[in-house]
Amino acid sequence: MKRNDILAGSLFHLSYWLRRKSVVLTHYKEFMKTQWWPYERFLESQLAQLGHLMQFVYQNVPYYSHLFDSMGLKPTDIDSIQALRRLPVLTKRIIRERREEMVPRNSHRLRCIPGSTGGSTGESLRYLMSIEDLARGVALLYRGWGYAGYRPGDKTAIIAGSSLIPTTRSAIRKYIISQLRNMRYYSSYGMSDAKMLHYVAAINRFKPDFLRGYVSSIFTLGCFIRDRNLTLRFHPRAVFTTAEKLLEGQRTTIEEIFQTRVFDTYGLNDGGVSAYECEEHCGMHIDMERAILEVVGENGEPVIGKPGRIIATSLYNYALPFIRYDTGDIGVMIQSACSCGRKLPLLKEIVGRITDVLDVNGRKIGSPVLTVLFGKFDIQQYQIIQDSMESLTCRIVKGKAYRRIDEEFIRKSLISHLGTIHIEFEYVPVIEPHEGNKHKFIIDRRSGT
Fold first, then answer.
1. What is the pTM of this model?
2. Across residues 155-159, what is the average pLDDT?
3. What is the DSSP string of 137-165?
4. Measured between alpha carbons, how far is residue 228 from residues 208, 221, 438 in Å?
5. Which domain holds residue 136?
6. Which CATH number covers residue 131?
């Protein structure tokens, strides 16, 4: 290992010791070993922790005390993943409406921090997250990056919104921590040409080993670099995309521009689930050391190999338990073994959000159908704007192989599903993130969303 690498790693570790969060490093070392566990050992560990969680919520959380009693259940009855499915799905609405019942009676004794979702499903949520749960999430993040060769202290540039950019009360503290961890943050909000030109210059000076950010942020910056014929003075070892659906056309474009591989990732703190793509690129390995991730169909039963709702059970967030929580995401889980040797199950892809639905003439098309339809063609980005009950606009960033005949196929397919409707096609060089935040596949202008 080079001297500079050793120094960078030491400073990275120092940043956590200074903030008295060395538990992150402890978990990171542990998880670097557990990634090679057999699946049965992961499951055994999950069920042991699930048992502790069930006892805790029954004794300390009024919502679950009432729920168990009303269903005639004891905490010990929930002793398997199958038994866990006896509990109803938890939604954001339930948490908001019954928040006082969701908070543990002894919450003042728990070390926790506030958290919030960005409202990408149209439903924002404020919640509490235990320090232990947060530490596990951060440690798993670093391990997941390690699938691409990342080591703590490697230079990393992050281009995203507030959900990926940490905020602290002290700007000086934030600056010091970012320096120690060798990370630089660039906001995705309002990525104008002038701002992106500044970003390129700053990133060229920093010369990061890795890039991370929203799919739309990385893609937009990459297209800006390509279209302006700007020179990259660094060679990233990998690009980490997250927070949004990654289309194959976007992956190809990002890899061509930055001359590296894209590693897609998935994660959310409300629910505690996460998954990371490894060097084999055959899906994202689902982390089992922090949460239980289920993919279920319309009947609530698990589905394999086809889209279903992602349901999360956070095993360590005692501050506000998320048990069988509806994440709002639609994903595909597969049973295939990965040749990398890790036995963690695979999330083949994130198909989209539950709210990505077209509703025309009393008929609905969800994001899985749209993803399959637009995925047939060389399309780097797409967005559907519902202007009225009678008209849609399909905004498309074309790839090199896209043809006019593809437009007709998309038009006929949409009409066959939705009935008589006027469809316009708008071809653009790039689709900016909605209001400077995450990319939205469907915008309903009838209601301003």
1. 0.81
2. 94
3. HHHHHHHHHHTTT--TT--EEEEE-TTTS
4. 21, 11, 24
5. 3-276+312-322
6. 3.40.50.12780
